[in-house]
């Protein structure tokens, strides 16, 4: 999922698969991704909304190996169960940004899809997990290797993707949870068309729409990486493609992003929103040119950014139109975009209530350590949202 896809996912409608098809219920579910980079959980009383945890990641390539019996992970399902309330379901997330080759190999043929799914089912049995999250970024192209492998060479994946999900559901059965992380930018929704969505959703319990990284190094002007307006555009695209809103989950980002900008153009612009960035990636290879980046709340602030980031914290503002907290540092020519606790709370009336979505998720639990201020804001938003729903 872009920046370290080890995330907290909090969903507001319980979805339970019936037969070969997953259908929505009306309960509450909160799923947390637990990360190898930040394997930290707060005291259990701060996790009272959590009903599911997704531990990330296992590489998809593991499941293409015949006869494999070991499933490497930085923790165990049993260890995770001890960190959360009794009854919390534990899922295994497969894939992540840049780890797509294994999915492509698996999806290529009927035989490969079946073998992959059978191995996934064996892993679930061996680990004692309650389900999986499929994090293929992205079927059809526009992944990390989009400059090396053109989208035209991956077009076949668009029809193969639901076939792979079909085999996974068949192998895992109706009682296991299967979710998928899906892109938040329209340009990346190559496989998530009106034609394909019914076939995809026939096998999934819900979609985790990555409504963050909505600005990344492929962009050339500044915008909110997890803004309200752009998030609504993403969600509406899936709804237009036929997905029930109750099966869509809104993404929150528990991390900070920054981008280097063009000083003169930004100074002349009426607003720093929409002003030009420097060239952020190599136009031939797609390689990162080191002019943008991200770090979680648990990470140390890079020394060379410390003063600028402090200005962003002290002087940043909320954009009521686009819906996002930002700061343009005119001293060092840096665009900062991230969710504050206040920005997180604002999304419940402006997005969740407006679209009556199935839930929310954030990226990621340990990434918000040690203060867990953004998790607290997410909890506040959930509680107030439930109060409003209960009054209706």
UniProtKB/TrEMBL annotation:
InterPro entries named among the record's database cross-references: Chitinase_II/V-like_cat, GH, Glyco_hydro18_cat, Glycosyl_Hydrlase_18
EC id: 3.2.1.14
Signal peptide residue numbers: 1-22
BP terms from Gene Ontology: carbohydrate metabolic process; chitin catabolic process
GO CC list: extracellular region
Entry keyword set: Hydrolase, Signal
Domain called GH18: residue spans: 28-385
Gene Ontology terms for molecular function: chitin binding; endochitinase activity
Protein name, entry field: chitinase
Organism for this UniProt entry: Canariomyces notabilis
Phylogenetic lineage: Eukaryota, Fungi, Dikarya, Ascomycota, Pezizomycotina
